[in-house]
Amino acid sequence: MQILLLALCISSTLADCPAAWKTFLNSQMEENTANGCEADWKFVNRPSGGWCMKIFPSDVASFEDAEKACKAVDATLSGLQDKKEAFFIQTSILAQVPESSGSLWTGLRRTKKCIGQKITATCTNLTSFEWTDGSSTGTDGFVFQAGQPDNKK
Question: What is the pTM assigned to this prediction?
């Protein structure tokens, strides 16, 4: 079983979750341990195979520091394969942290050809970025705020 770290900065506990989320998260934990993940890691099945992911609390300020923190636990900063993974992460985080606070590092980076480029025919909102973890594929996991990305940087 390979280990994949999803994100840094926020950790959720079941004690603070609403009842409906506790039921969902408990069912996920039972599935996780049956698939070889430790109890506090989430099992995800991707086209590239089964992975274990976990949200770690941290105060890292850059993508590079987040990746280093992942490597310290023999993992890598993860992408989001699809909306289901994004929903799980969102509900896990919002169970403890208000929507207007905190941040989350994922393995999404602007492609080299689109660095410094505005939105163009070759640098669209779906082609300007790529997953860095080697296991996330496609664009179903891209989650942007309205009007983003605008390719300003």
Answer: 0.67
